[in-house]
Amino acid sequence: MSTKSNYATGVMLCLIATLSWGTMFPIMTKALKVIDPFTFTAFRYTIAGAIFLIFQYIKEGPTSFRLDGNLLLLWLFGSAGFAGFGFFVFFGQQLAGPEGALSASMMMATMPLLGSLVNWALKGVRPPSFSFGFILLSFVGVLLVITKGHLGLIFSNPGNYKANVLMVAGALCWVTYTIGASYFPKWSPIKYTSLSTLFGLPTIYAVTAILGYSGAISFPSASTVANVTPELLYMALIAGFVGVLCWNQGNKIITPLNGVLFMDVVPVTAFILSTFEGIVPASGQLVGITFTAVALILNNLYQRKRMHNLANASSANAKRA
């Protein structure tokens, strides 16, 4: 396969992944009307986790299941990525109602820039000064979406945005999980994904059980589970298994620096599908998504130029030496 066609394959894989993620939020709007996000998350990752483990066994063999890493970190990152993301984002979307899909999808687009802050907190790698401006621009874009262009509402009715705080927490959980892969450098993306899912499941089950037996949520009936089976299968098989695999493989081909730009596809897809369902974004929300997209693209261009300058400086120093 030529380099050009291989790159095109990487682009298509990243596009499939982000389209599947952008679609999942409007799909969840229906499911969250009849089932709580905690039990749904437990069902979803039980299915996806089993498929990932089978896939790992087929692709990498039984020896790939050796746990030669920090198991506490694996549990922490797995809990953040699957329990934290699933609980916070979809509970926030449920609280936000029909328009929650738009806000939740916007959080996905901010993840690359949030990653700079999380990487700074975990590893002490400070983002370049210019990146802070892009992070601020992206944050303004999010505020425009959740306030429908009326930023003053944040101060006059701060209690109305509890759902959005939860969704931001969920986005931070997924960013933390993604960065967690760097703590297992000898593991393949397939191994990290499948084993972190496995180690995250006890947290999902424990939290769901505590909420259920305390009366905070009601465990769904068999008929309720049957009612959301199409959404559950989509979330587990398409957004979960296919989406993650395509994302990992696509970024391996075109590099994360290029792949990250596809995160803008997520809110665009959610906005289009929500429009078909009668939820028309306000003009201020469209401005907001534009701000976030521009911030992501400009930060990407800045990082490219910065890496190019560093490479040239390193090459010049090597020649002088």
Key structural traits:
single chain, 321 residues, mainly alpha
Secondary-structure-based class equals mainly alpha
Termini gap: 39 Å
Low-confidence stretches: none
Oligomer: single chain
Biggest sheet descriptor: none
Instruction: Kindly provide the radius of gyration, computed on alpha-carbon positions and rounded to a whole number of angstroms.
Output: 20 Å
Overall outline: globular
Helix content: over 70%
Report the average pLDDT across residues.
Answer: 84
What's the count of strands? Answer: 0
What are the SSEs and their pairings?
Blueprint: H1 3-31, H2 37-60, H3 71-96, H4 100-123, H5 129-146, H6 153-156, H7 162-180, H8 189-213, H9 222-227, H10 229-254, H11 256-259, H12 265-276, H13 283-320
Task: Give a verbal description of the structure.
By secondary structure, the protein is an all-alpha fold. It has one domain (51-218, 262-320). It is built from 13 helices and no strands. The chain has helices spanning 3-31, 37-60, 71-96, 100-123, 129-146, 153-156, 162-180, 189-213, 222-227, 229-254, 256-259, 265-276, 283-320. α2 crosses α10, α3 crosses α8 (189-213) and α4 packs antiparallel against α12. The longest helix is centred in the last third of the chain and has 38 residues, at 283-320. The two termini are 39 Å apart. The mean pLDDT is 84.
Short note summarizing the structure:
Helix content is 79%, strand content 0%. With 321 residues, the protein is mainly α.
